[in-house]
Design brief:
Elements (H helix, E strand, L loop, with lengths): L1 E3 L8 E6 L2 E9 L2 E5 L10 H4 E4 L2 E4 L4 E4 L5 E3 L8 E7 L2 E5 L1
Antiparallel strand pairs: 1-10, 2-3, 3-4, 4-9, 5-6, 6-7, 7-8, 9-10
GO molecular function: 2 iron, 2 sulfur cluster binding; metal ion binding
InterPro entries: Rieske_2Fe-2S (IPR017941), Rieske_2Fe-2S_sf (IPR036922)
Keywords: 2Fe-2S, Iron, Iron-sulfur, Metal-binding
Length: about 100
């Protein structure tokens, strides 16, 4: 999936819809973007609102589940299920999103 690079501030999160999928984009600065399914696999909290990135973890602040930003595995907290991670690379002004 390819889309125009969105204009995000560092640390900003944005849900996008592409090819019938919703993806939560998180911009880390430079050419680093993260992509996740937008709802927590624990009880479905909206991670655009409740998700934060701390170091190498995505944390859902609803019940404090921690997920690896690399592979989505649950590291700590209530969720036993992983979160889906999308691999994102940048090519000039485009984002290339892989499942
Ligand atoms: S809904 Fe995210 S930790 Fe419970």
């Amino acid at each position: 999936m390819i889309l125009e690079k969105p204009n995000l501030k560092i640390g900003e999160k944005k849900k996008i819809s592409i090819d019938g999928k919703e993806i939560l984009l998180i911009y880390l600065g430079a050419d680093r973007y993260l992509g996740f399914e937008p709802y927590c696999p624990h009880l479905g909290c909206d991670l655009e609102k409740y998700g934060v990135i701390i170091r190498e973890e995505l944390i859902c602040q609803c019940h404090f589940s921690h997920f690896s930003i690399k592979d989505g595995k649950p590291i700590k907290g209530t969720s036993k299920k992983p979160i889906k991670v999308y691999k994102i690379s940048v090519d000039k002004n485009k984002l290339i999103i892989e499942e």
